[in-house]
Write a structure and sequence with these properties.
With 417 residues, this protein is mainly beta. It has 3 domains: 8-24 and 188-293, no CATH class; 32-64 and 112-176, no CATH class; 310-414, no CATH class. Helix content is 6%, strand content 44%. The chain has helices spanning 8-18, 75-85, 89-93; strands spanning 32-37, 42-49, 59-64, 98-99, 109-115, 119-124, 129-134, 139-143, 154-158, 162-166, 171-176, 192-197, 200-208, 218-223, 226-231, 235-241, 245-250, 255-259, 271-275, 279-283, 288-293, 313-318, 323-330, 340-345, 348-353, 357-364, 367-372, 377-381, 393-396, 401-404, 409-414. An 11-stranded antiparallel beta sheet has the order 4-5-3-8-7-6-11-1-2-9-10. Strands 18-17-16-21-12-13-19-20-25-24 form a 10-stranded antiparallel beta sheet. The two termini are 36 Å apart. Residues 1-24 and 87-106 have low confidence and may be disordered.
Length: 417
């Protein structure tokens, strides 16, 4: 594929340099809070979502229950959208951002995704419904059907009782709090390192097989009939050896050629690297080459570093020369700066919070150029956010609301000041 911009390796070298200029204390990057059960019992300490989310930069995912932004479209604009997408419901749903929901008469209900650092609390409602409170005091009701972040076990290392596991059905509320700079006990040390893939090198916090995030998590595999369960904090590197095995090098220097599980073969769901200034880079197994682990400089961004969520705002340039300035609702859905833009480059997925983006410029029916805040650019494709599957943008100007279809947008310049 022809690239219009600088190479990912150059971009990531800049990101890596900037990543920890403002370092956090060692443990403040881990999720921390107070969990209250229906019986009124309260547990406080580090929190882990099942066997997965443990950092403030990890993602909480659910489905929004309605799309009120449709109310601001004319009947002609809404009919045009429905004519365009009714026959492609199955295709659209593959891109995660859109689902169909009876609460909104089956029309354009999207996913809700945010880093845990933007959340103030979660209050459990009936069934799989949850009331999300953001740090700025806004409330969003979400539905967890089809998402494992709602309904999972919640693990807490309580200050008095130690490690406990709580059933979701017995929970009333989870309140998120700043993490102490030093924790007496935690779920493990961060997985951090450099991942080499066909697209380039990415350095940051690593999620192996989309799940394992800390050194106490285990890599499974077998060699010569022997089964191994190896803590990640004993591993120096993992190199893909074709599609069905991996060469695992331990910190002692010992090498194992492991196979037989999704940790080490092509059933692996992918390797995610979280890089400050960019977002999450999701590398599929067939693009992955090698990861080399190293000590993390800290545990990542702190709860207080996320601040209060803001609305997306800026200027939309239209093909007829018009310019509309105001609050922007992107893809008729994303309206907060913590929400995510998704796209791909050579099968590598990029998940970028809007607060890291300065401009978006559609360039073809399936491609857009994304300019990041530091001036670096990515050419992304194959996703609803960056292609003609995008539903367009709604701009709240000082005097009106203006809807612009995606195929009429020349450029979106974002401004959060």
């Amino acid at each position: 594929m022809k690239r219009l911009t600088t190479t990912p390796k150059l971009i990531l070298s800049v990101f890596t340099t900037l990543l920890f200029l403002t370092s956090s204390a060692q443990d403040e990057g881990f999720i921390y809070g107070k969990v209250t059960t229906e019986d009124g019992d309260v547990y406080e300490g580090p929190i882990r979502w099942g066997k997965e989310e443990v950092y403030w930069t990890d993602m909480f995912n659910a489905s929004k229950r309605e799309n009120k932004n449709l109310d601001y479209l004319t009947s002609r604009e809404l009919d045009a959208l429905e004519d365009r997408y009714d026959d492609n419901n199955n295709l659209i749903s593959r891109f995660v951002n859109i689902s169909w929901d009876d609460d909104n008469d089956g029309r354009f209900v999207h996913e809700f995704s945010t880093e845990f650092g933007n959340l103030k609390s979660l209050r459990m409602r009936s069934g799989s419904r949850v009331e999300v409170e953001l740090k700025n005091g806004d409330y969003i009701e979400v539905n967890g059907s089809g998402y494992n972040d709602i309904g999972t076990k919640i693990n807490v290392i309580d200050r008095e009782l130690g490690k406990i596991q709580l059933s979701w059905n017995n929970l009333d509320k989870i309140e998120f709090l700043p993490t102490p700079s030093r924790l007496d006990e935690k779920f493990g040390e961060p997985l951090y390192g450099t991942v080499i893939c066909d697209l380039g090198e990415f350095t940051g916090f690593v999620q192996w097989d989309h799940d394992e995030r800390v050194g106490t998590d285990v890599l499974d595999g077998e060699e010569d009939g022997n089964d191994y369960e190896i803590d990640f904090d004993k591993i120096r590197s993992i190199k893909r050896d074709g599609y069905s095995s991996s060469i695992v090098t331990l910190k002692s220097g010992r090498e194992l050629d492991l196979r037989g599980t999704n940790d080490v073969d092509d059933d692996n769901k992918g390797i995610i690297v979280t890089v400050k200034g960019l977002g999450r880079v999701d590398i599929p197994w067939d693009e992955f080459d090698k990861v080399t682990f190293k000590d993390a400089p800290n545990s990542g961004p702190t709860y207080s570093s996320f601040g209060s969520p803001k609305k997306i705002s800026g200027t939309v340039e239209v093909d007829n020369g018009d310019r509309h300035n105001g609050e922007i609702i992107f893809d008729l859905d994303e309206e907060y700066t913590f929400e995510l833009l998704n796209g791909e480059d050579d099968d590598v997925k990029f998940i970028i919070p809007f607060y890291n983006i300065s401009a978006i410029a559609p360039r073809s029916s399936d491609t857009s150029i994304i300019t990041l805040k530091d001036g670096s650019k990515l050419t992304l494709e194959d996703g609803q956010d960056v292609s003609d599957k995008n539903l367009g943008v709604l701009i709240r100007t000082k005097s009106d609301r203006v809807y612009v279809p995606w195929d009429r947008i020349e450029k979106i310049n974002l401004d959060y000041n």
